[in-house]
Amino acid sequence: MDMLLLRTVMLTVAITIAANLGLCFCGCASAEYDIDGDCCPMCAPGNHVYWHCTVDTSTTCVPCPASTYTDEPNGLLSCFPCTVCDAVHQLKVQKACTRSADTICEPQEGFHCVKLNKGSCTLAVEHSECKPGQYIKQTGTSFSDTVCANCTYGTYSDGSLMACLPHSKCETMGLTEVNAGTTSSDSKCEK
Ligand SMILES: *[C@@H]1O[C@H](CO)[C@@H](O)[C@H](O)[C@H]1NC(C)=O
After folding, report:
1. Minimal CA–CA distance to 116: which of 149, 96, 91, 141?
2. Which domain holds residue 37?
3. Ligand 1: which residue has its CA nearest to atom 7?
4. CB-ligand 1 contact for 184 (6 Å cutoff)
5. Which ligand 1 atom minimizes the distance to the CA of 183?
6. CA neighbours within 13 Å on the CB side: how many for 98?
7. Nearest CA to ligand 1 atom 3
8. pLDDT tens digit string along 16-26?
9. Burial (0-12, 13-18, 19+ Cβ within 10 Å), 40
């Protein structure tokens, strides 16, 4: 027998013996967890382990208590606490926590999200205000800030308008212009 064949045979024998003794070099299956070298079936999302499995009983699972969750199959002895949508970070609840899914937070009115984690907002900031001489090109949303743009020549806005207004034309009203308009103020007319 050549060396390669001998080695192959010995390896095959070793694997066969290991398999017959129930030894495993591959850890637990994907739906199982390891507890002191033994493999136990995992608990479904929304539950946690109450008793580990034994030789003749499967894992005993119980539902997560109020305000806690597990969102994956697990071998955990307790569930995770639900995230609180923090008013300090300008957040409110979009979707309440369930036993199998954490809370989803969203920005409060007038704020937009600047930090997301797993689809939930963790930090929001207030929308910018447009300056005098600008108009609101796009109002802010939960995920984008206000977009401002300059008024063009001959128009004005105090920053709160969705479009700039044209300056009054004193002459066409039979009046005299005493102050030319700016991008932030109308022209001033007098008799
Ligand atoms: C808008 O106006 C300001 C002040 O007049 C100016 O500094 C700025 O460059 C303008 N922005 C654009 C995009 O034209």
Report:
1. 91
2. 30-81
3. 150
4. no
5. 5
6. 8
7. 150
8. 444 444 554 55
9. buried
CATH number at 54 reads 2.10.50.10
Q: Count up the domains in the chain and report the number.
A: 3
Query: Mean pLDDT, to the nearest integer, of 68-92?
Result: 96
Single pTM value for the model: 0.69
Question: Is the CB of 68 inside a 6 Å radius of any atom of ligand 1?
Answer: no
Could you give the dihedral angle defined by the CA atoms of residues 90, 94, 99 and 101, in that order, rounded to the nearest 10 degrees?
Answer: -90
Longest dimension (CA), the chain: 120
Residue ID of nearest Cα to ligand 1 atom 10: 150
Domain with 100 in it: what CATH number? 2.10.50
pLDDT, tens digit, for every residue of 117-175?
999 999 999 999 999 999 999 999 999 999 999 999 999 999 999 999 999 999 999 99
